[in-house]
Write a structure and sequence with these properties.
alpha+beta; 22% helix
């Protein structure tokens, strides 16, 4: 990721989550750490498959035990705290019990995957397409 790409991703995440404390810190050519304030909350990975550049925000959420759909309110509270955004919602997926959708307001932003019973964690994954970073979209025009 070059400097301009990091700046665009950083601005996109700040806008998407409504939190100016989010920041990206590049690690390698294809990865970056994601912070809110001084806390590292996850990572961002570049995906160049199919000749289309995209990105995936990944956050591991540690839990005291196995997660499933009965834990949605707890997971929603966790994400709201991490991103300091009360508009985040975690909702069940139709015909799926191994994951849930994550939305901000009415807008779908990603999926929360419940890991196997031994890991005691779940994973939030948010895809970001290169077109999401288009300057005209960021400025609302």
């Amino acid at each position: 990721m070059d400097v301009q790409e990091v700046k665009k991703l950083d601005a996109y995440l700040k806008r998407q989550f409504g939190n100016t404390r989010i920041r990206l810190v590049p690690k390698t050519a294809d990865t970056a750490d994601v912070f809110v304030g001084e806390e590292r909350i996850g990572g961002l990975i570049v995906d160049d498959e199919d000749d289309e550049r995209s990105y995936n925000l990944e956050i591991k959420i540690p839990l005291g035990g196995p997660a499933d759909v009965k834990d949605l309110k707890q997971l929603e509270a966790y994400l709201r705290r991490k991103f300091d955004n009360e508009q985040i919602r975690v909702v069940p997926r139709a015909k799926k019990n191994d994951s849930a959708e994550v939305c901000i307001g009415r807008e779908y932003i990603g999926v929360l995957f419940f890991d196997d019973k031994e890991s005691r964690s779940c994973f939030f994954e948010m895809p970001i397409l290169a077109l999401d970073l288009d300057e005209s979209r960021l400025s609302g025009g």
